[in-house]
Amino acid sequence: MNPKILQLAHSGIQQLKPYAPGKPLSELEREYGITDAVKLASNESPFAPANSVMTAIKNHMAELNRYPDGNGFELKAKLAAKHQLQQTQISLGNGSNDILELAARTFVSAGDEVIFSQHSFAVYPIVTMAVNGSMQIATALPPNHSSQPYGHDLSAMLELVNKRSKLIFIANPNNPTGTYLSIAQIKEFMSSLPETVIVVIDEAYYEYVEQQDYASALELIVEYPNLIVTRTFSKAYGLPGLRIGYGLSQPAIADCLNRVRQPFNVNYLAQVAAIAALDDKAYLKQAIDNNRQQMEFLKQEFTDLNLDYIPSVGNFICVKVATDDAAPIYLKLLEQGIIVRPVASYDLPQYLRVSIGTKTENERFIAALKIALGA
Ligand SMILES: *Cc1c(COP(=O)(O)O)cnc(C)c1O
């Protein structure tokens, strides 16, 4: 790499480490000369998209010579009805990550402070550093916390708020820990903040959560002009390959994000697919049912193997496979054709994060894990 070129970038970019995605299946199969590998590394749905969605995509391919509807009218109409909001409150994104980035580009200038938690989603530091914002990382709850080990500590986050604070990212549930915050905690947090600080509540895993005290922060939008709630079609709806998500807020925030976004940030087939996906309740239910059953299966297996795990409400779980470094176990799983996610970069070096797969995939993972551990 030519260091002179890197020096031309601003200091935030110079310090930025690029996002490390889960290892692609094709790469593992190529490297190890195997077939039939299992990927449980990117919190993807183990199921192909709904048939209704694939049919809708096929039926609209012939229109790809046209630009998509830049305002996403039809999809916004559907989302507005679903969430009982106005279309002017919806921002569509090329994945919900697009909305996270738009929020940073819209509200954060160089030197402004952006607050998020330790062990939180890797995209928050990236979008912050890309605008040369100053990261303020709140210490997470302790490993021995009774219900949410390594979870967001909202009082620690609140302590970081000052005149330079512009933006706060909260993942609820959080990735990679799978911990969550109750709606009561979110309410109290919002009421303690000055309205000059924009809050993004990232609900990428919303559909999976079944806890009684959990609810979407959507209900708070009417009260808080500084709140953005993000959702995605990448997880329970099984469409990460298409890249589509959205933000919900009062119209004023949506207006600001709309000024910054690219004119056609959400591609045509993604819009078509999302519209069809919203109608397919059976697909969503099956995804959630599988997740519930298979999460139970994995937790039971971990308990039988005497492995600690972080209780998760998402479609993934972090399991502690080493007292110091989980990397050797990760490699032993790779050798057996199983890709999971090391989370050392999230400050959780003893853990591996495994996405919830199908019954067959999870059984293969557990069998391989036993071999890797010599259990
Ligand atoms: C997976 C994930 C997303 C989804 O991002 P998309 O751009 O919608 O695919 C968002 N936030 C968190 C915390 C995630 O783990």
Helices and strands in order:
Layout: H1 3-8, H2 11-15, H3 25-32, E1 38-39, H4 51-60, H5 73-83, E2 90-93, H6 96-107, E3 113-117, H7 123-130, E4 134-138, H8 154-159, E5 165-171, H9 183-192, E6 198-202, E7 227-232, E8 245-248, H10 251-260, H11 268-279, H12 281-304, E9 309-310, E10 316-320, H13 327-335, E11 338-339, E12 341-342, E13 351-355, H14 359-373
Parallel strand pairs: 1-11, 3-4, 3-5, 5-6, 6-7
Antiparallel strand pairs: 2-8, 7-8, 9-10, 10-13, 12-13
Helix pairs in contact: 4-11, 5-11, 6-7, 13-14
Q: State the share of residues found in helices, binned by percent.
A: 25-40%
> How large a portion of the residues is in β-strands, by DSSP E?
5-15%
Rg result: 21 Å
Distance between the termini: 44 Å
Q: Give the quaternary arrangement of the chains.
A: single chain
Could you say which small molecules are bound to this protein? pyridoxal-5'-phosphate
Biggest sheet layout: 7 strands, mixed
